[in-house]
C-alpha cells in the first residue's frame, strides 16, 4: 500500500546565511577521479536547523568540509554571510564524529582554544569555558584530560568547544554516531535546547532518519554518483517531537524511500 503523503519542500529560507550555486568537487587521486559533488545549489537561512542525509559516499562530508573551509571546491560559488570562504574561521564551529579534542589539553583548555586564538582575555576565557561546560552538563570535568572522559563526555566537550566563539554556523558531521542510544538521546535534546536558546544555524549530517526528524526543521537528502541534492523537505512536526506521532512515521517512510532504503509496505 502506498498512501499519498503530503510533503512540503523548503521554499522561503529567510535571510540566507549559506549560499551554494552549482557547487562541484572532484577528488583527483593517482587512481582516478571521483565526482564527490556534481552540482549542488542550496540556500540556508540564518537560524535554520538543517539535517543532511544520504547514502555513504554521496558527498555529505565533502559539503561540510567545503563550508568549514577545509576543502576548496573545484567549481561553483559558496558564500557564508555574503563572503567567499577562504579557510577555517571562528565564525564556523565544527564538530566531527571522532571527537577531535586536543589530547594534550584539559577539557577546559580545549573549550578555551578558539578564544585563546582570538586573543580573548584569560578571565573572560575561564568564564565562558565554565559556562559552556555547565551548559553541556559537565560542570566538574574542566581539569580532566580527554583520555579521562567517556565518549559521550568528549563529544559534549567538543560541542562546548565549537560553541565557545559563538559561531553563527555550526557544522556537525555525524557527531553522535559512535554513542550509545541513551547518551545520543540526551545530546540530541541538549542540541535542540542550544538551538532554541542561541539560534545558531546548524548543518548536521546523520545516517539516522529518526535523529534527523527529532532535530531538524529541514532535511536535505543527497544521492551519490555524482553527489547531489534529491529532496529538500520541510519538517512540519511540532516540538517536542514524538517518535510515535503518525506524521513522524509518514515522514520517516518518505525519507527512507528518498534515500533508497527498502521499507516495509
Ligand atoms: N580525500 C579524498 N580523496 C579521494 N576521494 C575522496 C576523498 N574524500 C572523499 N572521497 C570520495 O568522494 C565521495 C564522497 O565522499 P564523502 O566523504 O563526502 O561522502 P559521505 O557522504 O560523507 O559518506 P559517508 O556517509 O560514508 O561519510 C566518495 O566517493 C569518496 O570515496
Ligand atoms: Mg561522511
From TrEMBL:
Q: Has UniProt tagged this entry with the keyword Nucleotide-binding?
A: yes
Tell me the GO molecular function terms.
ATP binding; ATP hydrolysis activity
Pfam families xrefs: ABC_tran (PF00005)
What CDD domains does the record point to?
ABC_NrtD_SsuB_transporters
Instruction: Give the transmembrane region(s).
Output: none
- The yes or no answer to whether the keyword RNA-binding is present is no
Q: Which UniProt keywords apply?
A: ATP-binding, Nucleotide-binding, Transport
Give the signal sequence positions: none
The residue ranges of the ABC transporter domain are: 21-249
* Function comment: Involved in beta-(1-->2)glucan export. Transmembrane domains (TMD) form a pore in the inner membrane and the ATP-binding domain (NBD) is responsible for energy generation.
Q: What family does this chain come from, according to its entry?
A: Belongs to the ABC transporter superfamily.
Q: What is this protein called?
A: ABC transporter ATP-binding protein
Q: Which organism is it from?
A: Bradyrhizobium uaiense
Q: What lineage is on file?
A: Bacteria, Pseudomonadati, Pseudomonadota, Alphaproteobacteria, Hyphomicrobiales
